[in-house]
Amino acid sequence: MRRQLLDPVGTESVAGVVRRLGAIPAQFDAAAELAIRTRRARSRPGEVVRALAEGRIIKTFAFRGATQFVTPEDGGAYLALRAAGRQWELPSWQSFYGLTPSDWPGFRETVREALSDGPMTYDELAAAVTARPKFRHLGFAFAAGAVTLLKPLAWQADMSFGPLRDGRATFQRLDHNPRWAGIPDLDEAGMRAIEAYFRAYGPATPGHVHYWLGEGLSAGRKRIQSWMADFGDRLAPVDIDGDTAYVLREDLDELAATPATTAVRLLPGHDQWVLGPGTADAHVVPPARRALVSRNANLVIVGGVVSGTWSLADDQVVTVWFAEAAPPVREALADEVARLATILDRPLQSTVQMA
Question: 233: domain range?
Answer without folding.
Answer: 202-257
